[in-house]
What does this fold into?
Amino acid sequence: MPRIIDQIRASKLPSNMMQFAARGALSVPPAENIEILVYLAKYSKVFGDVARMTLAGWDAKASIDAASNPETPGQVLDYFMENLRPQLLPALLENPAVAQEALAKFAISASRESIEKMLKSSRVRRSEAILDCLRSNPYLNKAESEEINTLISSASNKNKDEGGTAIAGLHHPGLGNENEPVDSAAADDGGGQVSDETVSVYLSEHASEIAAEGEKPFQAIGGVLDLLGKDSLPVSSTAEGGHPPTPGVGTHDAVAGAAAVPAKAAPGRKALPDVAKRDNTVQKINRLDIKGRIQLALKGNKEERSLLIRDGTKVVALAVLEAPKLSDGEVEKFAGQKNVLETVLRAIPLKRRFMKNYGVVRNLVGNPRTPLDLGLGLMKHLLTQDLKNLSNNKEVSETIRKLALKMYKQKLASADKK
It folds into this structure.
């Protein structure tokens, strides 16, 4: 006999039974009752409000049991994190089924009460990624900041970064660092040197997401013209007094045909070979399925990564951030792009290596596409001049501008006292 939750998903339960379900009054185990309530709260227009109210007052012990159980469905755990009841946080923090990324995201804007509980969690205290995001929380007090810095420093001594040197804090421009990675074409010699095992591990870890996407083709955020650049339009048509042809933006043929018919250069002007090269790269990517694009994201060159970071398929775009050859300069550029998924911008701060680069932090805060909670958490790291510039940036939200101005004035006042 199918479970009640399966009947609800299939819309096979009578209306009167749905009312019982929304009040948590069905004769099913507590864990299934919670699963039903979460499903209704998220997806039912008719019974959603009742289900949310029921969940808010649900038995504390049963809720804690569900929050601490690794077998609890991910949808339920996600709901608990998004609609947090304070007494559930300790259980959620230690539950291995709750992704580290979810805890890191939560840490950025956690409340005072939540910060105190997080700092008591053994899992949080062991995780550099979560601690680094927690360090950006605007509600942190001085003692907690010092404690987090000590924990991160301790963890860094055990886990040396890729260059063999543990570096704490952000790298600010102009300070100099002999261990700073070289961001040059010579450091990026294309694919082929990344092991197949690296690719296999990523594919295995994201198997469910890949399966869910099916055969989704490459679709760049921002469209084809933005992808190829304005120079991809035939020059001859405008040079002869005509009008540039209207490209089939968003169509596969527009991309596939771009390199097949190279544009003629106008008299007295040189051809643009880099455009043809990019066209060919787009063609190459268009022929690949999701697994092929993931492999290229991990093993490809800088040119290919610059296109794949804008892939509308989340699991592909995030693979670019896992590429061993990815340079700090590339990440700095990604952090300022408006034509990437929000998921990409949220993923960048989760890697401590990226957040040591001051340019990455500055670009994230100044990017109008960056989620507000993330931008607010990172502002404390900005230099005085950048805070002033940010306060005048009309592209970012008013909340960011006002806080930037307030922090700018506070830093000026502090400098005057010294």
In short: The chain has a mean pLDDT of 79. The CA atoms of residues 309 and 317 lie 4 Å apart. Residues 398-417 form the longest helix (20 residues). The chain is about 55% helix and 0% strand.
